[in-house]
Structures are given as structure tokens and as C-alpha cells.
Specification:
heterodimer; A: alpha/beta; Glucose Oxidase, domain 1; 3 helices; B: alpha/beta; Aconitase, domain 3; 3 domains; four-stranded parallel sheet; 16 helices; 14 strands; globular
Chain lengths: ~140, ~425
């Protein structure tokens, strides 16, 4: 499985195990900024960790502090390897825009149709600099 | 359509100082959103001064070092410390020092030391139809819906970047065509006693947020204006369970004199008829604790309590002594009047812990407690307390919260939906 995704925010190419969320999440209050662990007890993927993963996000909800949590994850090296979104989320991705202004290495944010998220579940995914998302052998 | 910056905006963005960084952040966001241009703003409310980790402090200090200053009125949302010294914050060094440095950096950028998530009750009320850049989800939804000023949900960093550049992306809720309702949320099927009760608003807000996501909707079937604190509770709950930035209530909020006008003559794409069962399920969903025998604390004031809400709290306590603490979160705009009238002392003598400038879900205040049970009347606290404090929550009206705090165990007066 390989797909070409639109680059929403440029960044480092990378690789990681896919983490496909089955429900939208609020980063603030829903993700521990120190570790990347999903802390929202009501979230179906509660207890999973998004650090180093290729994160497939069906959407975000809640607080407008999502960007701060993502910036902190970038700064303390617990960010996802890449973030794949169905549609641009300016609140969350601002965390990456600011990280770039700070001169920090940032993961890429990519746009891909929600319908293909499931095909990556359970696989290791490589993200190329041009936005190609492939399942690693 | 790609973003076109004016020559002035381009000149600022190509610089090396803090103003340049702010303009680039606004422009990058505008590109991401697909906005064709930037528009001037009249004010800002800044959510970025809450400590989540060192990165936010470093960002604010980089703006200060770059000589940046806000160019419009900018109030500050809560920080991680109680600078008024009402409550003890269990934030340890070095985080404590970094949180203080962050609050100081935002002061140096020229922001007002309001430190409240209810700036709209602390004298910051932008005019109907004006464009502003507000952060903090409850403040955003109140500003759009109740005041009729125009803002998107500005995240941390973009809020201060807009305040410094005096610009915001021309996008979303700044545009008239995106403010009309596409959905009807009909509450006429609920009982009059329930609609007249305090819990109706956080419960319905929570349901509304989950049902509508980010669609603009109009609530119909509300018999009379429920009061500003009820609208505050509705919006805060809706913005916690969904991505709500603007709601209308027919006959109540300023852009919706009636449902037809705000639907702009079109048929609604969706009609949600709220049944008593739906309201009962939404109410049950606000609790995560199942039939606890005792409670450890009560937390109220998300959004920050108004003076009217303190009046009600004091009346309900009626001079009795509480068995478990009631954490009452508010802003310094309310604290000063509580102090002038001697009410702060009376409340504290009963066992109320007043928390100013911050609140119990954004910074460690309540003791760490394995299996702790927190009771609240706030839809927003109910949503965030389990993840942020480790306490399980029990939802009830303010009356029930106070009675339970007096007894130390949960007690409920039932109001059928």
C-alpha cells in the first residue's frame, strides 16, 4: 500500500508504526505532553502512546491549546513520526509551524482521505520527503 | 486561492524580529486555512500563557527578545499559577519557575493581566460584528455567539501572533456567509422544569457539542433568555465535547432574532429533536464515577465564576461548614469585589478554597488521590477532570454539589428531563 499525500506542513521524513485513531481527540487533556500517552479515559485508544508513531487522526475536538501540546511533544522528542489528517487542522498544526520558527526539527503533517487510514493499521509506515506514505517491508 | 499579503505585511514578514515571526505565523496559518488575505482585528484574548512545558515559555521569550508588542487590546487567559495567593499550587521547580517566566513574558508583550477564561465578564466585550482573535474554546464560543463579535478558534501562539501583527486570516467565522445556521437543535420536547433548571445548560451543551461537531446550529424551543451564566455554561460544555465555535439560540443570541433569519431562508440540513432520553443520557455521560459512597472534593468555576454565581454559592452554603472542600475558581475581577465586601473570608471560613488566575484542571491544586471522586456542576470540568487530575467525576447541579460537600457524600435532587 502506497499513497501520495498532500504536504500540509513540511518537515522531516520518517518511519514509524501506524497508530490509527478511531475517534477524534482533544490533544489538550487527551494527550500527556510529557510522554505522548493518550490520557483521555473516554478515548478508544486510551493508554496508547503516539511518540514515534505515524499518527492517523480522524479529527480533533476540544481545547484550543492542542498546538501547545504538540509543540511540547516536538521539543521533548515525543512527537509522532508524522501526522496524517483527513483535513487541515490549523489549531493543531500551528504547533508544527511554531516549532519551525523556533528552529526545531519537526515531523511532517500530511493530508490523506480518511477512508484509507485503516489500510495502514498494524504496519510500519515510511513517510518520504515528497509526501509518499508506504508500508515498509 | 493563494494568500495575498499587502506590501506592508510582506515587509514585516521578511524581517528578523519578533514582529516578523508573528506575521509569518499568521501568514502560514492563513495559507493552511486557505484564506485569501489577512484582515485587521480589534482585540485579542490570549490563551497561550498557560504553562504546558518549557517550549511555550521559550516561544514567548523569543518574541520578547525580538522586541514584539501587542498592537490591540489583549487580555490574558488563565496561567498555571495563582498570582493572587488564594490557593496553593503544587507545581514544583523547575516547572514553577518556567510557568512564572512565561506569565512574565506575556506581560512584557503588553497583554493585560486579566488571567481569566471569562474575559467577557471582566470588561472585555468586543462590539457586535467586529473582527477579533480570541483563544480559549469557551471564550471563543461566547464571543461569537453571545456578543456577536467574530473570531475563529485561535490556538495558542496564533492568538499572540495575531495580537502582535494586528491581523487575522480572513476565513471561517469572520465571514458572514459562514455564520448562518445549517442545523436546528430543537429542545421544545423537554419539560419546562428541566429547561428552567441550572443543569439544563451544561447537559444540553454537552449533547449539542457531540451532535453538531463544528456545524453552526440554532437552538429552538427555549422559552425565555436563560441568563448570561447559563449561556456561558452551555458554550463551555459544547466547546469541550465538540469543536463548536458559534451557536445561535432563537430569540436569545444577537444574530438570531428568530430561526428563519439565521437559517437565511434555507431549509436546515439537519434537525435534531432532543428527547428527554437523550438529555438523560447526556447528563449520565458527564459522570465517570458509578454510585460512589463518598466524594473527596467539589470543583466549580469552569468557566470562571461570576459574582452572581458566588451569590448563589453563598446562599446555598447558608453559613454551614463543608465536610469536603469546594474549589471555587474565578478571576481577579471577581476576587476584588469579594474582598471588599468581606465575603471572601466568610466563604473560606465555610471551607471554600478560592482559586484565582487559574483553575483546578489546568495546574495541580487538588491533592493527588488514588480513586478520588470530584463532584462538579461544570460540563467542562466534567469533561477534563478525569484526564487532567486523575479524579473520577460526578456531575450535579450547584445545589447538589453544595449539599454533597456539606454531607461529604453525594446527594441528588432529581429533575426529569
Amino acid at each position: 500500500m502506497s499513497a501520495m499525500a498532500e504536504i500540509l506542513v513540511p518537515g522531516q521524513a520518517g518511519e514509524g508504526e501506524a497508530l490509527v485513531l478511531t475517534a477524534p481527540i482533544s490533544f489538550w487533556g487527551g494527550v500527556d505532553p510529557k510522554t505522548g500517552r493518550i490520557a483521555d479515559v473516554r478515548h478508544p485508544q486510551h493508554g496508547q502512546n503516539l511518540a514515534g508513531r505515524v499518527l492517523f487522526l480522524p479529527g480533533t475536538i476540544g481545547s484550543s491549546s492542542a498546538s501547545a501540546v504538540l509543540l511540547e511533544l516536538v521539543h521533548n522528542c515525543h512527537a509522532p513520526a508524522a501526522i496524517v489528517l483527513h483535513e487541515p487542522d490549523a489549531i493543531l498544526l500551528l504547533g508544527l509551524i511554531v516549532a519551525r520558527e523556533m528552529g526545531w526539527e519537526t515531523p511532517m503533517a500530511l493530508r490523506l482521505g480518511r477512508d484509507v487510514f485503516e489500510t495502514y493499521r498494524g504496519s510500519t509506515v515510511t513517510v518520504a520527503g515528497d509526501g509518499a506514505l508506504a508500508i515498509a517491508d | 486561492m493563494s494568500l495575498a499579503l499587502s506590501p506592508d505585511e510582506q515587509a514585516i514578514a521578511s524581517g528578523k524580529d519578533g514582529a516578523a515571526m508573528a506575521m509569518r505565523i499568521v501568514a502560514d496559518s492563513a495559507r493552511l486555512l486557505g484564506a485569501p488575505r489577512l484582515i485587521p482585528i480589534a482585540s485579542a484574548h490570549i490563551d497561550g500563557a498557560l504553562y504546558h512545558g518549557d517550549s511555550g515559555t521559550l516561544f514567548a521569550e523569543k518574541l520578547v527578545e525580538g522586541g514584539a508588542r501587542v498592537c490591540v487590546r489583549s487580555t490574558l487567559n488563565v496561567g498555571a499559577l495563582d498570582l493572587m495567593g488564594c490557593s496553593r499550587i503544587r507545581l514544583e521547580e523547575p516547572a514553577r519557575g518556567m510557568a512564572r517566566r512565561m506569565m512574565e513574558a506575556y506581560r512584557k508583550l503588553g497583554c493585560e493581566q486579566s488571567w481569566t477564561c471569562a474575559p467577557y465578564q471582566a470588561g472585555h466585550r468586543p462590539a457586535l460584528g467586529s473582527d477579533v482573535a480570541w483563544g480559549e474554546s469557551n471564550a471563543v464560543v461566547f464571543c461569537n455567539s453571545v456578543l456577536g463579535a467574530r473570531t475563529n478558534r485561535y490556538g495558542d501562539f496564533l492568538d499572540i501572533a495575531c495580537a502582535i501583527s494586528g491581523r487575522a486570516p480572513d476565513y471561517g467565522l469572520h465571514r458572514t456567509e459562514n455564520r448562518r445556521a445549517r442545523l436546528v437543535f430543537d429542545v421544545a420536547g423537554l419539560s419546562a422544569p428541566f429547561l428552567g433548571s441550572e443543569i439544563a445548560w451544561p447537559v444540553l451543551g454537552s449533547l449539542y457539542g457531540r451532535e453538531v461537531g463544528n456545524t453552526v446550529g440554532v437552538v429552538i424551543g427555549v422559552p425565555s433568555h436563560p441568563g448570561e451564566d447559563a449561556l456561558k455554561a452551555f458554550g463551555a460544555a459544547a466547546a469541550s465535547s465538540g469543536a463548536v465555535g458559534l451557536f445561535h439560540i432563537a430569540g436569545v443570541t444577537p444574530e438570531a432574532p428568530d430561526a428563519e433569519i439565521i437559517l437565511a431562508g434555507a431549509a436546515p440540513e439537519t434537525v435534531i429533536r432532543v428527547t428527554p432520553e437523550m438529555a438523560a443520557r447526556a447528563r449520565a455521560g458527564l459522570s465517570t464515577a458509578t454510585r460512589p459512597k463518598a466524594i473527596d472534593a467539589v470543583a466549580i468555576g469552569s468557566p470562571h465564576l461570576s459574582l452572581a454565581e458566588f451569590d448563589m454559592l453563598e446562599r446555598l452554603i447558608g453559613g454551614r461548614r463543608l465536610s469536603v472542600p469546594v474549589y471555587a475558581c474565578t478571576g481577579r475581577h471577581v476576587l476584588s469585589s469579594l474582598e471588599q465586601t468581606g465575603r471572601r473570608k466568610r466563604l473560606e471560613a465555610s471551607g471554600v478554597i478560592i482559586v484565582a488566575d487559574t483553575c483546578v484542571v489546568v495546574t495541580p491544586i487538588m491533592p493527588e488521590l488514588e480513586g478520588g471522586i470530584l463532584m462538579t456542576n461544570s460540563g467542562k470540568f466534567a469533561h477534563y477532570a478525569p484526564g487532567n487530575t486523575g479524579y473520577a467525576v460526578l456531575y450535579g447541579s450547584l445545589t447538589d454539589c453544595v449539599e454533597s460537600a456539606v454531607l461529604g457524600k453525594p446527594t441528588f435532587t432529581d429533575i426529569a428531563a
